[in-house]
Structure formats: C-alpha cells, structure tokens
Amino acid sequence: MMKRTFFPSVYRLGQLGLDGLVAAVACSLAFFIRFEGQIEPIYQDLALWLSLIAIPGRLITHTAFGVYQQVWRLFGLKDSITLLNAVTFYSLGVLVVTRLGMLHLQPGFKGVPLGVAVVDWAFCLMGMVAVRYARRRTIQQPLFRRQRRSRNPKRVLLVGAGMAGSLIVQEVRQNPYLNVEIVGFVDDDRTKLGRRVEGVKVLGPTSQLVSLAQQYYAREVLICMPSASAAQMRRIFDLTRGTPLQLKVLPGQGELIEERSLTPQVRELQIQDILGRPEIRLDFSEEFNSQFPSASEQVYQKTVLVTGAGGTIGSEICRQLARLQPQRLLLLGRGENSIFLVDRELRRTFPHLEVMPIIADIRHCDRMEQIFQQWRPDIIFHAAAHKHVPLMQQHPTEALENNALASAHLARLANRYGVKTFVAISTDKAVDPSNFMGLSKRLAELLIKAQTTASQTRFLVVRFGNVLGSRGSVVPIFQDQIARGGPVTVTDQRMTRYFMTTPEAAQLVIQSLAVGKSGQILILDMGSPVRIYDLARQMIELAGLQPDIDIPIQIMGLRPGEKLDEALVGSSETVGQTEHPKIVAVSSPPPAGETLAEVFQELSQAAKGEVSSDELWRLAQGCVQRLTTVADVSMRDRLS
Q: Is the dihedral of CA 125, 131, 135, 140 positive or negative?
C-alpha cells in the first residue's frame, strides 16, 4: 500500500518543488539582469517578496490551469501550450496588479518594470519546459541503455522522413528492448537531404537505398509512408529485389489504429501493397445528394443482422459496423468456431456493444423465421454463400439451394417483417455466368430484385470481384504453394481477375446504404483487372525467391466452368452513376410476380429431385432468361 500512495505523493511534491525553484530563480534573475546586478533601492524589497510570492503564486495558477494533471514523461505540444497559458496569465496578473495597485506606496514607484516582467516570463517558461523535457528524455534515453540492449541490435534503414518515421524513431528510443538501431532515413524530398529528423540523418534519395543500406550495414528496410502509392511500393520492392535486405512496411492510413504504438503494426510487405491500384477508403459519415441519410446515421442504434458473419467478408462487415454503434449486432452463421471467434473479438474490442451470436443455417426456413420474429432486424447484410467454383460444379444443387433459394427466402422474410434495408453480396461471376456458382448468384440477384415490387423494404445487391486474402482465394493458395516449395499452379497465362481488399469490400457493402436505390446492383470502381500469372510471379518475388528458378510456375489449363476474364457488368446491362464517385449502379426493372413464383417453384423442385447436372444447368439458365426477358418486356410496355 505504501508504494501506491506514498511514492506518487513524493513524486508530485518533487514536481511542485522544481516548478517553485524555477519560479523563484527566474524572478530573481529577471531583476538582476534588468538592473545589471545593481538593483535600485526602490525595487529591492519588491524583488525579494516577488521572488518569494512567485512560488505559491505560480503553483496555484498552474493547478488552476490543469498543468499538474499532465504526465511529465509524455510532455508534448498540447502540454506546452497549457503551460504557456498558465505562465503568461500569472506574469500579466503580477504586472497589472503592481502597476495599478501599488503606485501610491512610494514616490517614483511605477510597479514592476516591463523588462523584468518579460525576462521573468521568458525564464520561467523556458525553465519549466526544460525540466519537463529533461524528464521525458530520461525515458527516451534511459541510463545504462547500452547494458540492457543486445550487443548486436538490428540495424534498420527507414524510407520516408515524415511524421510516421519520426514516431518510429521516438518509439525505438523509448523501448530499448526492441533491440533496433535506426541508421538513417532515405527520402526523395530534396529539401530534407542532409538534414536530421529526431537526430537521425536523411542519408540520401530512395534510388540509393541499397548502397546506403550496405554502407551502414542495415539488415532491414522499413517503409514509413502510410500514404505511399502502389507504384512507390513496387519501385522500392524492385530496388531491393535480389538483395538480402528484409523489406517491411507500416500499414496504410486506413489500417493504422489511433492512439497505438506504430512499431507493433510493422508487417511484411504484402501483395496488395504493390498490385497497382490504390486502396479506396469510404467515409460512412459522408452525406450525399440523395434521399438517404449517411450510412453511419442509418446504422446508429439499429438492430443489424449479418449472415455469414464468420466468413472473411461477413466478419469484416461486422468490424466496420461495430464502429458505427448499432444498438444490437446479430452474428448469424452455421460454423460455430468462426462465429465464436468473431463474437469474442467484437466483445473485446467493443465492450459496450450488444453482440448476439446465432448458429443457424439460412436454408432452414422455419429457423430463420423464428430469428426474424425474435429479433426484428432493421438492416440485413446477407453475406452467407457457397463461393468455390469447382466444388459447386460438382454439387450444383447445393449452389442453387444455398445461394439462390435461401437468399430469395431471406428477402421474403425481410419484406414480411418490415426490414428497412436488405443488402445482398454478389460476385462478378454472376455476370454472363459460365458455372453453377455464378449462375446461382445471378439467380439470387434476380430473385431478390423481384421483391422490390410493392415492398417497403429497400433491396440492394453489391457486386465485386475477388477479395485478397479471403479463405480459399488465390492469394492464400499461392502462399501455401510457395511455402511448400512449389509449384505455383496457374490456370492460364492470359487469365485476369478483378481484386479488392477485404476492408474495401466491407466498406462498399455498408456504403451502399447511403447511395443505393431499391433494386439496384452497386459496383465499386476496381480499376483494371490483374493477370493471375503476374500475381504469381510477384508473390514468389515477395518471398525472396525467383520464379521458375527457385519456385516453378505450372500452367494447368481451364477448369470446368472457368473463364479467362471476368466482367463486372453484363452484356445486356447498362450502368449509371450514383452520388458516390467511386460507386456505379446497374439498374433494371424487377421481374413480374407471376414469373417469380413459377421460377421459384421450378428451382425448388429441381433442387430436391434426381436431375442431372446438364438438365439442371439448362433449367437454371432458362429461369434466368425468363426473369430478365419478362422484366425487359414489362419495361417496354411501360415506356410505350
């Protein structure tokens, strides 16, 4: 108990004592300097008692301004501004009181000379800042630092002499147990060359990165540019390729966690850093010139249901939604382990959020209706789906049941129970589909869109391409093949795909609330498609290996249902702009209700019966054709 109460009191008394000493010395020196060591008799008494009264006077003023609520070892700019205000307030008060209130005490007495007041103010401010900064430096450069550090620290060269680089240097100095020594910076800003940041010299431009690393025996290069473009990352990667240098990077601006140290967030350079398309960050609080409030306003204090919440996209949607403070977040999935992990993560990160894990299969109609009756969700994000193309080719009835029919039933329940907005996730494989997975997602798009007729619920579909790092996607597969020593298998050298990051995909889904009109399919501007062969080569090089030398690349040929190129918009679809510059919309009239009922019945029967894959394919394609044809005809009838 003594350690908890006595020592903090002694520490605080020490702070008060230092400030009191600085106040008294500053006042005495001010009189001494102003009068060049010979204080006039008329001011001698004033100099004595002002020096004494400065001790309690400044301490009381500092307390009133909250100066002693500061932590000296973390003394920074905001703290110095508070200290400046307190010191200035006291100095002005003394000057005014002595000049106006003491003129009658003695003939010729005019109060504290202005020069004394200015010098006292300056010395007092500098002295108090100095003792606080000295305390901070004892933390940044502790005694016996060399004894506590290993004899062989990791020598690191930093790329980017900006704010992030400055913070990295500070953290390395404050924590010697990191066992890191910063040898210097490289930066392409010519005005910084030869100068120092936190005492560390900017050695040269990035073009000299490798030679400077060799000159200063650096083993690791850390890119400290959170806003760096993919082209900049790729250039640095090309410079270090084939060298023994380890290349690491700080995460991008959207990944950086506020009020947290940067050094734990340093990670290996990843493929998304150099793919060539800057990551798009969407602002949920942004207002658009549309009939809908911002996404954050729509989610705030609402009950939100996420299906497939244990998957890569579903779990990221939950993380993004949790920041928008819904009243209740329902995590629905059939995999208990993944739902358990997401639930635990959200409860730890957002302790005040009501999180409800729900284990259920979206194909079980009675169970889903029970969930809707119990929780009455305001918004639904439907991310549950089968997504693996080869597996769905082998099990087409699973694709139709889970992706198409279950999605249609969820949309019906949303309409019946008054859900405000229903957002479904689709894929570029639904565009002119050539496989059962894509065909089932195209049917889901059309069956959900059909619910927009005479419904108060807003039904939206979000369509995007491949998500980097999602389970079973090409990037983890390539990583596993490289770790095993190869070969890396590529379908065709000409094959291309659209890629986006997991945060981008989740943000697009949530941002659809602010810009999407019922029945629209929303698409994010994903830039140009990427050649899978080039992706494989870059990933091998990222691992520090050489393609076709250390790791062979094997061309496998197209699998059943695969296409060389994917598209985001179908050949019969037209694209329009939304209020968001990075999101476009595909609009078309909904299918007729009679046709919808017929199609749903036929698909349900086919999924239960003994139907061959070829017959099921022809039936499903015919259903898509009927749904789109009826919609086109009804639109022409209305126009005529």
A: positive
161 and 41, same domain (yes or no): no
d(C-alpha 275, C-alpha 534), whole Å = 10
* Spatial distance between the Cα atoms of 212 and 186, rounded to a whole number of angstroms: 9
User: Does any domain span residue 535?
Assistant: yes
Q: Taking a C-beta distance cutoff of 8 angstroms, is the pair 117, 95 a contact?
A: yes
Task: Centre a 10 Å sphere on the Cβ of residue 601 and count the other Cβ atoms it contains.
Answer: 10
Contact 532, 499 (CB under 8 A): no
Closest CA to 431 of 621, 297, 566, 316: 566
Judge if 132 and 154 occupy the same domain: no
pLDDT along the chain (640 residues), means of 10: 48 80 87 80 78 86 83 72 88 81 56 82 88 71 47 84 83 74 89 85 90 89 79 83 81 45 53 61 72 88 95 92 94 93 94 94 94 95 91 90 93 94 92 90 91 88 82 80 88 86 85 88 83 86 81 87 82 81 81 75 80 86 81 44
Task: Supply the pTM of this predicted model.
Answer: 0.66
3-state SS assignment for residue 399? helix
How many folded domains does the chain comprise? 3
Does residue 288 belong to any structural domain of this protein?
no
Please give the structure tokens belonging to residue 127. 């002295």
449, 414 Cβ separation under 8 angstroms:
no
Q: Clarify whether residues 202 and 167 are in a common domain.
A: yes
User: Measured on CA atoms in the order 27, 33, 34, 35, is the torsion positive or negative?
Assistant: positive
Domain match, 436 and 542 both = yes
| Helix, strand, or coil (residue 583) | strand
